[in-house]
Specification:
By secondary structure, the protein is of the alpha+beta class. Helices cover 43% and strands 13% of the residues. The N terminus is likely disordered. The structure holds flavin-adenine dinucleotide (FAD).
Length: 1046
């Protein structure tokens, strides 16, 4: 007869936006947009006079005028004197400036026909060259950011302090070739060759810009592409063509050409500017793309004389709450009217048909952004003023009157910390690549220390020095950027965010830490001073629980970093460095833990019974009392679980719904043919792999047995109880999550009491789900409900033990992968009653282990694990197989059975929930005697009674789990005994009613009800008969009043 496999009975985006916001610009600084440059162009070479700076010819004419010389005398002298003339020799560096002055004065005098003193010419020219052509400078900067090489190729003279150093930043160019230094001048072939050589490019890979045709001709002869510069602005347009359409105009720091996938229709944008913003220009807009702003593509736009920033949602399918540019626009505009410095907001366009996605336009603020927190190059006073301005700005944000600003509906008022703890825990769990114990500890600590009171203000969400634009010269914030994470929230989170760098380790990569900086000596406020400044300006008392906020900030940071890492290793990350950040999440979480453990903060305890009632979306009632894992508080519904446990619970539930539920029928069908009874269904194996990969594995090991979470998920009994209930609805799931009895109990024994060798040999493969195990205690010949009766013998003989015994109901022994038995027997019959029994590990393939037969339960074989009758005849095992020590069997049994009982009981609640659901479905439409069964009063009563009993029992089970977690298994013993009786009996009642409501079908294998019933019945015996537990409950009752004579 077939039921369902016993072994299965017993027993799944920070948003990218967020990361780029928080990590930008540092971590994501290396994100480089797509490049459009054709491979053929690797370098661009610029002439100086007439290209980068104005032509000296105009200066010649002015100088001629100044000295009263005929027009053209200076340039004429240059040409007529030729190669050996003073000008050309100066350019080649063959003569000094004073020699030049004498010689050139002679040459010009000759040409002008009158005395001409040329000693002041060079200085005069130098001054006239002071103002470089901005369009060319923009082009050079643009080329560099796109990765092209740039060179300055100039026929110069001995500059002696009057040259390019004064005119421009020499660092703009990768290569500077000056005729006076190389001894050759344009148009000599050699000087071009030198330039190409230094650039390390071939002639055809380069473009040359000059205003003189003769120079261009020589370059062309070499194969260099050329552009004649008459009008620098036009020349840049020509150059754009030569470099494959890169945008070389209106350079702004950190911007590049708009990559292909982020392009927007410019004609439509222009129409929007004209019609909605009333901006008009004969010139089309120039658009560039900011390199950070990965989440919400951000553009610099120049149009109608305005410097603008356009920020839009990215293209493609988005999470509903992510990339909310509309929110950013709204909050910026609102707070801007209440004194918070923000750029001028031009307009919001929510119509996706304009440029593809909604966007907004604001002013581009020209100012200073400080990326180095120690503000190099400033005086102490300047630094202090900058930090004070930052604190002032934060206060301005937090002082905004939410209602008056029209932001009442901008977020929930209150509960910000818990909500964010949940949100980031979920993000973290979803991006986890390995277990980070420090992260779990940190989450637990945070959930236990959530502040009882939170202030409610506008919270920026990512308030940092480098998100502020300062006035170009004054210590004054002129723009607060990056409002993407803003909401109504707890203001102190902003304060801790902007001070986080004071806590990061000094050697923390990518982000500058102030931890070991002597901030005082730099004039920068210490953390304490900064908080004082903030509190004074806000008019609030000192912050007593700042530790919490720092730990919270570090937790959030670690969660974000983990997300970046996960995306990087899964190939979605765009930052080349992000693969390296894998270790940092751990580092930050550990830092958070250090802060938590050195904190004097007491856990926050809400008053008992102070429950919160909420109505969820589906109209179902949820309620919770307190926070999981905190003494004196008990969670009574999954909604009250700690963020980490809640996340696991959600994923377990989701996995069951999406994976196990659809596979149940197929698995049960697989086991129908006799030849499959003792085989493992491949579908189960596949599901196990999937669950394992999703981290839904070995969830059962309680925190107390495995505090370091070396083996399991580190859940409390209560947390795991909720997951067990879900597994009970689809009994196959326990096996799928490697959470099935008797392996769970056996693994716990090995974790608690096993030697390293025992762990290596048996625990590891059990944890990996590679082998199965059984537990051999019950014997046919003695009343085994009293374990002192167990008669099997374990006798020490030399270097091994010899085992003899007759066992039955050894569940799991028939499983094809069962490799080891935790065997109970007597080592010393003469010892005190509870010291006679020991537990020892017996390999199932040891000679002398004989499976006699499979036992049935109501005719069910419970394959593939089964319940076996087994004979152990002179079985020899090494001494090292003894668990804990001779005579300590009862000690182990007590430890083993506590958590396991909770598991069975919660699964029974799940069994009952499923039965009740089936009953509701069945009676809904089936008509008897003129009306649906559901309309019959008795059925309604059965449904109601079932619901009441389920709820009662669940509360009792949760209480038992809560007691175990907070006061230990011993104190919780009465509650454990109570649930052992209550849960199977409740389940039997509920399942029985469901069977009855199904009529004959309820008893068949067409429904799972008969199987569930038989299993609930088993559990009135299998973990000890009801009577034994009732006995201990009643004994407790008598003892309470000192009335016990038993
Ligand atoms: C499906 C199934 C799976 C099992 N799996 C395992 C397993 O994996 N490993 C294992 O070792 N065992 C297992 N067992 C055995 C189970 O633990 C025992 O059946 C149980 O402990 C009772 O022992 P017994 O069968 O020897 O009954 P007995 O001890 O003979 O008891 C018989 C009856 O006596 C009554 N009784 C006993 N004590 C008292 C009392 N103090 N007061 C009043 N009445 C009393 C109860 O009604 C009890 O049912 C399993 C049993 C089943 C049915």
């Amino acid at each position: 007869m077939h039921r369902f496999p016993l072994s299965v009975l017993r027993a799944p985006k920070l948003s990218q936006s967020v990361s780029s916001q928080i990590l930008s610009p540092r971590i994501q600084a290396s994100v480089v947009m797509a490049q459009h440059r054709p491979k053929t162009t690797k370098a661009v070479i610029f002439d100086l006079g007439g290209v980068v700076v104005p032509s000296p010819l105009a200066a010649f004419q002015e100088y001629e005028k100044k000295l009263g010389l005929p027009r053209g005398s200076i340039s004429g002298a240059v040409v007529e004197s030729g190669d050996n003339g003073a000008w050309n020799r100066l350019e080649r560096g063959e003569i000094s400036l004073s020699e030049f002055a004498d010689k050139f004065s002679e040459e010009v005098s000759k040409k002008a026909g009158k005395r001409a003193d040329m000693s002041g010419l060079m200085k005069f020219i130098g001054n006239s060259l002071m103002k470089p052509n901005q369009s060319i400078i923009d082009a050079v900067k643009s080329l560099k950011i796109e990765g092209l090489k740039t060179a300055l190729l100039t026929n110069n003279w001995h500059w002696e302090g009057e040259g390019p150093n004064r005119v421009m930043d020499r660092d703009l160019f990768d290569v500077i070739v000056e005729s006076s230094k190389v001894g050759a001048r344009k148009p000599e072939r050699r000087i071009y060759e030198i330039c190409l050589e230094q650039l390390d490019v071939r002639a055809e890979e380069s473009v040359f810009l000059d205003d003189l045709g003769v120079n261009l001709k020589a370059a062309k002869a070499l194969g260099i592409r050329t552009i004649k510069v008459t009008d620098p602005t036009k020349a840049v347009l020509d150059l754009e063509q030569e470099v494959g359409g890169l945008c070389l105009r209106r350079f702004v720091d950190d911007t590049t050409t708009v990559p292909e996938h982020l392009r927007i229709p410019m004609d439509r944008l222009e129409t929007y500017f004209n019609q909605q913003l009333n901006l008009h220009s004969p010139e089309p807009p120039v658009i560039r793309c900011f390199r950070h702003g990965q989440s919400n593509p951000t553009y610099y736009v120049y149009y109608a004389g305005k410097h603008l920033v356009l920020r839009k949602k990215p293209p493609g399918k988005l999470l509903p709450s992510a990339h909310a540019v509309e929110r950013e626009f709204r909050v910026m505009k609102a707070v801007g009217q209440w004194g918070v410095p923000i750029p001028r907001m031009y307009g919001l366009c929510e119509d996706s048909s304009v440029i593809g996605t909604p966007f907004y336009v604001m002013e581009y603020c020209k100012g200073r952004i400080f990326k180095d927190l120690d503000l190099p190059g400033m005086t102490n006073q300047e630094r202090r003023d900058i930090y004070i301005a930052m604190a002032d700005t934060l206060c301005k944000i937090h002082r905004v009157d939410i209602s008056k600003a029209g932001l009442d509906d901008y977020g929930k008022k209150g509960g910000y910390l818990r909500r964010n703890l949940n949100r980031w825990t979920k993000q973290y769990e979803a991006s986890k690549t390995e277990e980070i114990p420090a992260m779990n500890k940190l989450i637990d600590w945070l959930s236990q220390h959530l502040p009882e009171k939170e202030a409610v203000t506008i919270a920026h969400g990512d308030f940092r020095l480098d998100n502020l634009i300062f006035h170009p010269t004054k210590p004054e914030v002129i723009g607060v950027l990056d409002w993407e994470l803003s909401t109504i929230g707890d203001p102190i989170t902003d304060l801790s965010t902007c001070l986080l760098n004071y806590y990061l380790p000094a050697n923390f990569p990518m982000i500058r830490s102030l931890k070991e900086t002597d901030v005082k000596s730099l004039g920068i406020p210490t953390v304490e001073e900064f908080i004082d400044i903030y509190c004074q300006r806000m008019g609030i008392p000192a912050i007593s629980n700042f530790d919490f906020y720092v730990a919270f900030g570090l937790f959030r940071f670690a969660a974000i970093i983990q997300g970046v890492y996960k995306r990087a290793i899964s190939g979605q990350g765009s930052a080349p460095n992000s693969v390296l950040v894998g270790e940092f999440a751990k580092l930050i979480a550990e830092l958070g833990c250090e802060i938590a453990s050195s904190s004097n903060l007491q856990p926050t305890v809400s008053p008992i019974g102070g429950g919160i009632q909420t109505e969820n979306m589906s109209g179902k009632r949820n309620y919770s009392i307190g926070t999981a894992g905190t003494a004196n508080q008990m969670v009574v519904s999954p909604e009250g679980l700690s963020p980490r446990a809640k996340d696991l619970y959600d994923r377990v539930k989701d996995f069951i719904e999406k994976e196990v539920k659809p596979a149940e029928k197929e698995i049960l069908e697989f086991y129908k043919p006799e030849q499959n009874h003792w085989r493992v269904c491949p579908v189960i194996l596949r599901l196990k792999e999937k669950a394992k990969a999703a981290g839904l594995w070995n969830l059962y090991l309680p925190k107390e047995s495995d505090p370091g979470m070396k083996y399991g998920a580190g859940l409390s009994n209560l947390e795991y109880a909720f997951m067990c209930e879900e597994m009970g609805k689809y009994p196959l799931s326990s096996e799928v999550f490697n959470c099935q009895a008797p392996d769970t109990g056996n693994m716990e024994v090995l974790v608690r009491y096993g030697t390293e060798e025992q762990k290596r040999q048996w625990l590891t493969p059990l944890l990996n789900g590679e082998i199965k195990s059984c537990f051999g205690m019950t014997e046919p010949q003695v009343a085994s409900s009293d374990a002192t009766n167990i008669e099997s013998s374990i006798t020490r003989e030399g270097d091994h033990y010899v085992i003899n015994g007759h066992k039955w109901w050894t569940s799991g022994a028939l499983h094809p992968d069962c490799k080891v038995c935790v065997f109970m027997g007597k080592t010393d019959k003469s010892a005190a009653t509870h010291r006679q029994q020991s537990m020892i590990l017996v390999p199932m393939d040891a000679p002398g282990v004989k499976i006699v037969r499979p036992l049935t339960v109501f005719g069910y074989l419970d394959y593939p694990a089964g319940h076996a009758e087994v004979i152990f005849e002179n079985v020899k095992v090494p001494l090292g197989n003894m668990l804990l020590g001779e005579g300590r069997g009862f000690e182990i049994a007590q430890g083993r059975l506590g958590p396991g009982r909770i598991h069975h009981c919660m699964r029974l609640i799940g069994n009952a929930e499923r039965a009740l659901q089936l009953m509701l479905e069945r009676t809904q439409n089936r008509v008897a005697f003129g009306k649906p069964l559901a309309a019959q009063g008795t059925i309604q009563q059965d449904v109601a009674k079932s619901r009441i009993e389920i709820e009662q029992t669940r509360l009792l089970v949760l209480k038992a789990a809560h007691m175990m977690d907070n006061y230990g298994n011993k104190v919780a013993a009465p509650e454990i005994a109570m649930i052992k009786v209550a849960a199977p009996n409740m389940a039997l009642n509920v399942i029985d009613r469901a069977i009855q409501a199904h009529g004959g079908a309820g008893l068949s294998d067409d429904f799972i009800l008969a199987g569930l019933f038989s299993w609930a019945r088993v559990l009135r015996l299998a973990d000890g008969p009801d009577e034994v537990h009732l006995r201990s409950v009643s004994r407790q009752e008598y003892r309470k009043y000192n009335l016990s004579k038993l």
